[in-house]
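Field reference: sequence -> structure
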Amino acid sequence: MRTPPEEDPFKPRKPGLFAGLRASFLTGLVVIAPVGLTIWLIWTLVGWVDGFVLPLVPYKFQPEKYIGINLRGIGLIIFLIFTIIVGWIAKGLIGKSLISFAESLVDRMPVVRSIYSGVKQIAETVFAQSERSFEKACLIQYPRKDIWAIGFISTRAKGEVTNRAETGGELLSVFVPTTPNPTSGFLLFFPREDVIELDMSVEEAAKLVISAGLVYPDMIEAEGADDPSKRRG
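Structure field:
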């Protein structure tokens, strides 16, 4: 009588039915979640704009009067058209004169003046100066030596910052973002020799920060990348 062969203890076992279903579910979740969240955010944003704009539009001009249903996104379209018209008028001589006159009236109102100037500065920073962006991603030692952090080089430091800083070289303005929200962080000024410029793009570095180090850019190391003298700005 032949004895059955002994099983190899080091041979990996095939995953069971439950493990396979669980892996497929997680894979599907990874695919569906970003798409679903994106659609939900866009749908919510459009609904929010509609809810704000449509009550300001006379009912006889709303499509609901003629087709009998409320089309989502009509308010957003009206807002975009209205904003384009306002921007077109503001670029002209008459528009600039009206804006100057209105701002002169606002400057005479103590509380309103502070609110308006703050909101205007934020809007100009976010929208009007959108062509300004971070120059490069970089690596800096922060918050102490031998601890490295991702940063974004914005500009060369100028004016009083450069004149008052006790350094003999050039200073760079570096924004150090926080994880997972890269819109908050710290503005720091580093000597140029202490800033290591990275080959990865600003978008790739932002993904690295948002993912808390889980998503690295697919990059081929450049020739001589290990030479510190070639990596420093």
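Note: Residues 65 and 197 are 59 Å apart (CA to CA).
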